[in-house]
Each structure stands twice: as C-alpha cells, then as structure tokens.
Amino acid sequence: MNKKITIAIDGYSSTGKSTIAKQLANQLGYVYVDSGAMYRAMTFFAMKNEFISKDHFDVTSLIENLDKAQLKFIYNPSIGFAEMYLNDENIEKAIRTLEVSNFVSQVAAISEVRKKLVTIQKEMGKNKGVVMDGRDIGTVVFTDAELKIFMTSSAETRAKRRFDELIEKGQEVSYDDVYTNVVDRDRVDTTRKDSPLVKADDAIEIDNSNLTKEEQFAIILKLVEEKLRDV
Ligand code: CDP
User: Residue 110: inside a domain, yes or no?
Assistant: First the structure.
C-alpha cells in the first residue's frame, strides 16, 4: 500500500489538468510537476532575449543559448505549490499571460528545447510519487507510468474556463482571443513532428465538459486507488 506510483496527465490546452494534478498530489502526498510551466519559462526566456516576437523566430539563437536558461521550481508554502523560476527570478505570474500562450507552442515544437526539458522531467520523476501534467508525459516522459489520464473537453468550455481565469487574475483579454489561442495551440501541439499531443494507447480518456471539479476528482481518485491496490 505504501508503494508510490507515477501519474501522467495529458490533454488539450485548458482542460483543467493542473487543477486535478495538484489536487491528486495534495491528497497522495506526491510531488506535482507542471511541465507546461517549463515550456512557458523557455518561451519567456526567448521573448526576453528577443529570439521570438510577432513576426520573427530566431530558432538558431534560441538553441545556441539554451544553456543560459536555468529553470527551477521552488515550493511556496503560502500557496501550497511550487513556482517557476528562471535564472533565480520568480516568473510564475509572467508565464501565465496570453502573450506567452501565443508563442509557447512554437517554442515547444523545437526538439532541442524538448530534449532539455524532458531530461529534467525524467530526473524529477525517477523516484516515483509524482503527478506530472502536460502533452507528452504518458507518451514520452514516463512511458511506464502506472496511471495515464488523457483529458478532453469542448474548445468552448476550455476557452471559457481560461478566459474566466485570466479575468480573475486581472488580465485584459477578450474571449475571442482566448478561444483562438486555445484552438491554435491544439492544432500546433497535435501536428508537430516531435512528441505531438496524442493519447497514449494505455491512457484513460476523461471528457470533463459536463463534470464538476468534485466529480472529476472522485473519478480519478478511484482510478488511483485501483492502481495502488495492484502495485
Ligand atoms: O494552458 P495550458 O495549461 O493548457 O497549457 P500548459 O500545460 O501550460 O502548456 C503550455 C504549452 O506548452 C502547450 O500548449 C504546449 O505547446 C507546451 N507543452 C508541451 O509541448 N509539452 C508538455 N509536456 C507541456 C506543455
């Protein structure tokens, strides 16, 4: 019963992966890792160094400078989860903007970026007891995860959730822009060459369009308990 497992949660943008992953990690005493935050951090790094902007993306310079981006998660007890740091700067808030969302899928499509981040992610999960969410966790990062979940819901539901979240954070965004971003990211993430977003064969698909957070948590916790009985 004390054996720890690895839980991989993948799915489309704004499906509430991180909410459920955090809840599970809290309940089980596991480490939660937001792999999307790492791709967002690399995007922030690329924006800050002007490797990427609206009409230009200098992939070569980004690749040449990858070593200059040091990523760290530091636990913040007042909010109960780890925040993203880039070269010792807390960038947790800065990476959640629509501007970063508008560039992140382009940066995440670069194989060198993925290689750097996947290496760190594998290291973070090597002792199990981890819940990681993202796009390629069950298919690339932890192919042997005991439990793989694939989250879906309609684009409208997801855009509405993300819009509400951004408004609550005080960001000035329009629903249409958020919707466009959600759909665009799905397209780029599912069609890229390296590690496209795809449901792993052994993942359990959950469509949460019509589920409350509580219902969703209960369903997934039951799956975890079944897996824990087997190990
Ligand atoms: O906005 P949302 O929470 O849905 O996305 P996120 O988890 O913060 O991820 C942002 C972006 O990072 C995705 O749209 C992907 O382009 C990329 N990503 C990835 O390629 N692989 C991962 N394991 C996680 C994120």
Answer: yes
- CA pair distance 27, 17, nearest whole angstrom: 15
User: Is 122 part of a structural domain of the chain?
Assistant: yes
Mutate to test the pocket of ligand 1, among 12, 13, 96 (most ligand atoms within 8 A of CB): 13
Q: Which domain holds residue 77?
A: 6-214
Give the pair of three-digit tokens for residue 183: 């759909």
User: Domain tally for the chain?
Assistant: 1
From 104, 117, 143, 165, give the residue whose CB has the most ligand 1 atoms within 8 Å, as the site to mutate. Answer: 104
Contacts of 56 (CB under 8 A, 6+ apart): none
- Does residue 121 sit within a domain? yes
Q: Which pTM does this prediction carry?
A: 0.96
CA 207 centroid distance within chain: 17
Residues facing residue 11 across a β-bridge: 151
Structure token pair of residue 99: 């501007």
Looking at the domain assignment, is residue 66 inside a domain?
yes
Q: The domain that contains 35 carries what CATH number?
A: 3.40.50.300
Ligand 1, residues 35, 124, 208: which to mutate, most atoms within 8 A of Cβ?
Answer: 35
> Which amino acids bring their CB within 6 angstroms of ligand 1?
13-14, 18, 35-36, 39-40, 104-105, 108, 134-137, 185, 189
Nearest alpha carbon, ligand 1 atom 12: 36
* Tens-level pLDDT at each residue, the chain (231 residues): 578 999 999 999 999 999 999 999 999 999 999 999 999 999 999 999 999 999 999 999 999 999 999 999 999 999 888 999 999 999 999 999 999 999 999 999 999 999 999 999 999 999 999 999 999 999 999 999 999 999 999 999 999 999 999 999 999 999 999 999 999 999 999 999 999 999 999 999 999 999 999 999 999 999 999 999 988
- For residue 40, how far is its CA from the centre of ligand 1 (angstroms)? 7
